[in-house]
Amino acid sequence: MKKQNSMCNAMSVDVEDYFQVSAFEKHIDKSDWNSIPCRVEENIERILALFEQKKIKATFFTLGWVAERYTSMVKKIVEHGHELASHGWEHIRVTQQDQEAFRQDIIRTRHLLEDLSGKQIKGYRAASYSICSENLWALDCLADAGYLYSSSIVPIKHDLYGIPDAPRFAFSSAEDRLLEIPISTINVAGKNINCGGGGWFRLFPYCFSRWAINSVNVKDQQPCIFYFHPWEVDPEQPRVESASRKSKFRHYLNLHKMHDRLANLLDDFHWGRVDDIFLGKETKPRINNTGSHR
After folding, report:
1. 3-state class (DSSP) for residue 21
2. Could you tell me if 46 and 259 are in contact, meaning their C-beta atoms sit under 8 angstroms apart?
3. What count of other Cβ atoms lies within 10 Å of the Cβ of residue 155?
4. Distance of CA 171 to the CA centre of its chain
5. How many angstroms separate the CA atoms of 90 and 239, rounded?
6. Are 169 and 222 in contact (CB under 8 A)?
């Protein structure tokens, strides 16, 4: 199948299980996590098989909690040539942590992932993209802890996250010690709309995502960064009936279509690891220094 264009985009997976998402944190206590049957291993197997079939490499932002319990899964991700990166320890939003708690969290997770993989952990993604205007100190903490990049900001207005006036494309932060790579958006009539994955990818018709990503590549001459979760390819996952109607709509919408849509996406565009694309192996994007945040 002919690709839409020659730009290589970054594919990423946020490795967490369905019961660990922020939308369910009021309904599933962390103390119960150990007693809930995990589905993440089986879902990662499906994802690795799909990536192998489509001959692409990706970045897996992985929870320390998951990595500690499923070490063979983590090692298999690395053995397949994918990048391993940090998603924090147990999906605590940065908005719920002070600086010291955050610092300990990112260091603990990085050390575990490096010990398991034997690889340098370069990247970090905050739970629920929870680095916002009020806690930009987190970018300095990440640089201090040895991370080279973060992908933790979405330049949109959202009830749970987002910095609407943040740069749309990769920018230097923490006094040029850290690269922040925002999730991809398309600007329509002066408003940024997410085209970088998650629930948006399941909500909008696939033709919108294909058009938007192609537009970013061709019109903006920038690579996209796309993300999804293992539970999104698992339509048979248990339902959390006590969650709000909004949360259930966002979480369960079109799960049965996700695998095929993802396969189409992998066919329609070129994909690679975040570190390869944004740190030098692939064509390096322009860095938006004029929009730099500290």
Report:
1. coil
2. yes
3. 20
4. 17
5. 21
6. yes
pLDDT at 181: 98
What is the phi/psi pair of residue 270, to 5°?
-85, 140
Tokens linked to 81: 């040539």
Would you identify the CATH topology of the domain 8-291?
A: TIM Barrel (3.20.20)
The tokens describing 60, both together, are 């897996």
- pLDDT band for position 159 (50/70/90)? low
End-to-end Cα spacing for the chain: 43
Q: What is the rounded distance in angstroms from the CA atom of residue 114 to the CA atom of residue 30?
A: 25
147's CB contacts (< 8 A; 6+ apart) are: 86, 106, 110, 121, 122, 123, 124, 178
In angstroms, how far is CA 290 from the centroid of its own chain? 24
Looking at residue 142, what DSSP letter applies? Answer: H
Q: Are 118 and 80 in contact (CB under 8 A)?
A: no
Q: Where are the domains of the chain?
A: 8-291
Beta-carbon contacts of 49 under 8 Å, excluding residues fewer than 6 positions away, are none
Amino acid at 28: I
Q: What is the pTM of this model?
A: 0.93
